[in-house]
UniProtKB/TrEMBL annotation:
One annotated GO biological process: regulation of DNA-templated transcription
The organism's place on the tree of life at top rank: Bacteria
PANTHER family found in the cross-reference section: STAGE II SPORULATION PROTEIN E, STAGE II SPORULATION PROTEIN E-RELATED
Keywords: Hydrolase
UniProt keyword Hydrolase present: yes
Domain called PAS: residue spans: 164-200
Keyword Magnesium: no
Coiled-coil regions listed: none
GO molecular function: phosphatase activity
Protein name according to UniProt: PAS domain-containing protein
Length: 875
């Protein structure tokens, strides 16, 4: 961080897995909040998310995150372990390309959000760093602050220098005192007679559009700008302008200037409203009330103070201030005083309203009696206010808001009061707009951080129910008090209430019951939020009915729990409710419903953020639906490739264990079957198709069904396999070679079992005798699906009581741990320990041995078929 002193550091390393991105975000957020750097948390989280994603996802390496704190900001470094990876730079500068590119967006965000950033290489790694400076906080604000140690006080010269500059009506400098010469380096002889604007480096107060030329024409003005010194450096100053006139009546402006960090010397103190009602004082009121007081740090404080002083200035009973939406078609209530709670923040009214004296908030309006023009000021309906004056807040001719005061008596206001209020509104409009833009910028950055985390969460699941739960949990309580998600199965289906969530868990069941009695909102694909009044109306009816029954049957203090729940639920849905369509792939798949409690409203920025979230959530929900449908189809087809069950074979125990490799798979390239043939004979098979996917599944289905059909037609083992080989070769390019162990089993009267076996390229079956010896029960023969002419033969095996025949696929024998492999010998060793076990116990022990052989999950399918002839019961 250059020469800045590092006062704290925090470091963490994150593994190269997707979930590390969210973990890294949480680490940076917790660290910066612990340091008290809340002003830069959102930007730091967004940048960290992009850079860690580049490291763990795109580079595929671990990410080292280091947070460094200093007195003026924070630096975050994200390092991966691929120093040879290229940075998207060109010889003539940075070229990040299109914002839609998958790479380079992290550096693009660094360039947009960070104060400084860079990429550094070392012999072992590469790291990208960015620095976020803390916003400058003016020294000497209106509100009192704690006592600061001497070391933290602002540094000045031997004494505070106050430059006094006088500018005539033409803008030329007519006076320049010694302090001005000391601060800026220009002597009086060098500047007198020259235009003051020639020495102004940046003529606007940051965050505003008022230029110096405009400020010099105002009666009074305070603000910051820059003056170019004699050495070429720009000196930030805080200035107070006062316009005066000399004895000849010529106007001029006196400017008092100090260095910006000494602004407390000039910044106007809080002034109480003037109570004197004489004409001279009434004319000066707007200056005293609005211009003499700088804006507080937060927009809400500024707006609330404005309405209170506007009410006092005109001796009103109520006042209100509304801010315009971006399209200037509606006004949002942002501050009121003297009005009931139903007129509180974020309620919206149209700009064009009624047919009163003026029908638009763009013009000043005086209503002497609202009862004569009902609806002229919708905000004051049913409030008892009779007379009102409203004036617009405009910046550069654009409507930014509306300020109004009202009284309970009629005829209280005239055009004179409208002019006074308009004069005050013109002076405060710029400060309000500046604070509003600052708030919007903070909201935008917070929204960006919110959407990054929301997208990460939604992309992490393909489960429909979990996606619904995430949608609701992300909106409650961040965006709304309660949320309901309706889903639509297809175009002919009605919307179905799928998920309900409230920030108070005790109200979820009551809210769900209430919404189930209300007709769902219409699935309109029009983007944006629309108001839905049905829940609040249903809640009002339920509360009214419940209250009436309670008064008839219960004492007020002994209200039942059910009654209290109904009333609480009605209160929960009594505010504004909006519906946002969930549109994915040009089809409405549901609706996201957000609600507020009684007398509460959504602000426009929250609705815009909810609209962005609904688009992401709709796509995630539709992806989950498509995945579920395809998974259901896949699993249904997979289950058709396995036998429905195992037959009961007299005097023979049979057990099968099947494990398909891969997530969500029920069937792989391996298959098995045991089925009755005729006359007490049973067929059994275990096989392995080369490859995976639909082509391998097709060969699996062909093999299993052909075996049953041919065996029941009376063909012997060699003939069955030769015809199956021909059928596989007929598939042409879609064919796959197949290893297959096929046999016929006949239980004998003496308690033994006779087996006729053909082993076509498959791992050989193993026979376990009662004495623990293990031997192969067949000879290897050619596999199927490779050559046309096969010369196969069958071998007979007799299983005596207590003997076991074990048949497996190569997923068992080829189980690996590094360079070691279980193999045929390892399998035989495990089988030799199974003497006396049932067929089920033998299969389970084999599976357990295979799973314990290696720590990693199996990468190949496994099928285990165990057949055992039980010993006769002892007397």
């Amino acid at each position: 961080m250059g020469s800045a002193v590092i006062t704290a550091r925090a470091a963490a390393t994150f593994e190269p897995v997707g979930r590390s991105v969210a973990t890294a975000r949480a680490f940076v957020r917790d660290t910066l909040q612990g340091w008290g750097y809340n002003d830069v948390v959102d930007d730091a989280v967004v940048l960290t998310s992009e850079l860690v994603t580049n490291a763990v996802v795109h580079a595929g390496t671990a990410a080292d995150v280091l947070c460094l704190r200093s007195g003026d900001g924070v630096r975050v470094e994200v390092a991966d372990h691929y120093p040879e990876r290229e940075v998207p730079l060109q010889s003539n500068g940075v070229d990040f390309g299109s914002p839609d590119r998958e790479n380079g967006r992290g550096l693009l965000l660094c360039a947009a959000l960070a104060s400084r950033w860079g990429v550094e290489y070392s012999p072992t790694r590469k790291h990208v760093w960015f620095q976020l400076d803390l916003p400058d906080r003016p020294v000497g604000i209106r509100s009192a602050g704690p006592v600061l140690p001497t070391s933290l006080l602002p540094v000045t010269d031997q004494r505070v220098r106050v430059a006094v500059v006088q500018i005539d009506s033409t803008g030329a400098i007519s006076a320049w005192n010694d302090d001005a010469a000391y601060v800026f380096g220009h002597t009086a002889e060098q500047v007198i007679g020259k235009q003051f604007t020639d020495f102004v480096a940046w003529p606007h107060t940051p965050g505003t559009n008022t230029g110096i030329a405009d400020a010099l024409q105002l009666s009074r003005w305070e603000g910051s700008y820059g003056i170019r010194g004699a050495d070429g450096r720009t000196i930030a100053v805080y200035s107070s302008h006062l316009r005066v006139r000399d004895t000849d009546g010529e106007p001029s402006t006196v400017c008092l200037l100090v260095r910006d960090d000494e602004r407390a010397v000039l910044q106007s103190p809080v002034r109480a409203p003037v109570s004197d009602t004489s004409a001279d004082h009434r004319t000066a009121d707007p200056f005293e009330v609005f211009i003499g007081s700088p804006a507080p740090d937060d927009l809400d404080g500024l707006l609330q103070r404005t309405v209170e002083r506007a009410r006092d200035m005109l001796d009103a009973d109520a006042a209100f201030l509304l801010l315009a939406t971006d399209d200037e078609t509606e006004l949002e209530v942002r501050a009121t005083t003297g009005l009931p709670s139903a007129r509180q923040r974020f309620a919206r009214v149209p700009v064009e309203a009624g047919t009163g004296r003026y029908g638009s908030a763009r013009m000043p309006a005086v209503h002497e009696d609202l009862t004569a023009v009902p609806g002229a000021v919708p905000l004051l309906t049913d409030t008892g206010m009779r007379s009102v004056v409203t004036v617009p807040l405009k910046v550069e001719g654009r409507l930014t808001g509306s300020l109004g005061v009202a009284a309970e008596a009629a005829g209280r206001y005239t055009n004179e009061e409208a002019l006074r209020l308009q004069f005050a509104a013109d002076r405060i409009a710029l400060a309000v707009e500046s604070a509003r833009l600052g708030e919007l910028e903070r909201l935008r950055r917070g929204s960006l951080s919110f959407l990054v985390e929301a997208s990460d969460l939604l992309a992490g699941t393909l489960d429909r129910d979990q996606t619904l739960a995430l949608m609701a949990q992300m909106t409650v309580p961040t965006l709304a008090t309660w949320c309901a998600v309706y889903t639509i199965a297809d175009q002919s289906s009605e919307p179905y209430l799928s998920y309900v969530l409230h920030e108070d868990e005790d109200l979820i069941d009551g809210l769900k019951a209430l919404l189930s009695k209300v007709a769902p909102p219409d699935p309109v694909p029009t983007p944006g939020a629309r108001v839905w009044a049905a829940p609040s109306e249903a809640g009002h009816r339920a509360a009214l009915s419940t209250s009436t029954r309670s008064l008839q049957h219960d004492a007020p203090l002994s209200m039942s729990t059910a009654t209290r729940t109904i009333l609480a639920t009605a209160q929960a849905v009594g505010g504004e409710t909006v519906v946002l369509p969930l549109v994915a792939r040009n089809r409405v798949i549901g609706m996201l419903t957000l609600g507020k409690p009684s007398d509460d409203h959504f602000r426009q920025e929250i609705l815009e953020l909810a609209e962005d979230l609904s688009r992401r959530a709709a796509l995630a929900l539709d992806n989950a639906r498509l995945y579920s449908e395809r998974m259901a189809i896949s699993q249904s087809l997979q289950r058709s490739l396995l036998p429905p069950g195992l037959p009961d074979v007299p005097n023979v125990e049979i057990e099968v264990i099947y494990r398909a490799a891969g997530e969500g798979n029920e069937v792989g390239g391996d298959f098995y079957d045991v089925f009755p043939i005729s006359d007490g004979a049973y067929g059994f098979a275990i096989g392995d198709v080369c490859g995976t996917g639909p082509e391998a599944a097709a060969v699996t289905g062909l093999a299993r069904h052909a075996l049953r059909l041919l065996a029941r037609e009376g063909f012997g083992g060699p003939a069955v396999l030769e015809r199956l080989n021909a059928a596989i070769l007929d598939e042409g390019a879609r064919s796959r070679f197949l290893t297959l162990l096929y046999g016929e089993l006949r239980p004998q009267e003496d308690g033994s079992a006779l087996l006729k076996v053909v082993c076509a390229g498959h791992p050989l079956p193993l026979r376990l005798r009662q004495d623990g010896s293990v031997e192969s029960a067949a000879e290897p023969q050619p596999l199927l699906g490779v050559i046309e002419d096969l010369d196969l033969y069958e071998e007979e095996v007799v299983l005596d009581p207590g003997d076991v025949l074990l048949c497996v696929t190569d997923g068992v024998t080829e189980r690996r741990e590094g360079t070691r492999m279980l193999g045929d010998d390892g399998l035989a060793d495990v089988l030799s320990t199974c003497t006396g076990l049932t067929a089920g116990a033998v299969a389970a022990r084999i599976l357990r041995a295979v799973e314990r052989f290696a720590a990693e999950p199996a990468s190949d399918d496994m099928a285990i078929l165990a057949m055992r002839v039980p010993e006769p019961p002892r007397a």
